[in-house]
Amino acid sequence: MHLRNRKAPKDSVHHPVFARYYARASVAADARGGIGALRAELLTGLSGRVVEVGAGNGLNFRHYPAAVSEVVAVEPERSLRQLGVEAAMRAKVSVDVLPGTAEALPVEDEGFDAAVASLVLCTVRDVPKALAEIRRVLRPGGELRFFEHGRAAERGRARVQRVLDRTVWPKLAGGCHTARDTLAAIREAGFEFGAYRSLRVPDPGPWMPTSPCVLGVAYRPRADLV
């Protein structure tokens, strides 16, 4: 295996106003909105080397189990990345925070036992390319753990999401899109699904464009060995 020259230009993604808002709101959502428990569920049972894509301010770091030998966390946004570095210093496992984008992960081929995508695929510029990169860096049989929001099942609500995505939402929310079909994208990228479930966040609570979520695991096919 070798390290590809895929490092993104420094601060290729920069949303300072949204980053400040997200840093505060995400901490509150973890504490009072039940997101922290979902992060813990997402990461339960992981082991070995893990790459986390779009690690943000590092709220996942404290939930990694001791069996994880190393986390390489990639985050393109400068302000969030600095908060991630601070969170890494408090983590119980080894965490290295790097600049980079999901579409050009600055890590080696087949170097990881697992990848984590947590509330990030809504913001990447090219979802198929990002998932192809995740597949590239996973060993055959490696896990993709995902916790993402996406398209509503109800036709009317999905229509609202599409309107928001075409107008104000990405500008206000750091490039976030609410109507992406996460499960379809993972399937089309060639992953094989393990267990997953659909959920609403917050539940109970008012419906938001980001409420429909999926949480689960998919695998890079072992057939990639041949």
Put the structure in a nutshell.
By secondary structure, this protein is of the alpha/beta class. Helix content is 32%, strand content 23%. A seven-stranded mixed β-sheet has the order 3-2-1-4-5-7-6, with helices on both faces.
Broad structural category: alpha/beta
Flag low-confidence runs: 1-9
Shape: globular
DSSP summary, beta strand count: 7
Cα-based radius of gyration, to the nearest Å = 16 Å
Distance between the termini: 16 Å
Secondary structure: helix percent? 25-40%
Largest β-sheet summary: 7 strands, mixed
Please give the oligomerization state of what you see: single chain
The H/E string reads HHEEHEEHEHHHEE
Order the strands across the largest sheet as they lie in space: 3-2-1-4-5-7-6
Task: Please state roughly what percent of the residues sit in beta strands, choosing from under 5%, 5-15%, 15-25%, 25-35%, 35-45% or over 45%.
Answer: 15-25%
Continuous helix count: 7
Q: Please, what is the average pLDDT?
A: 90
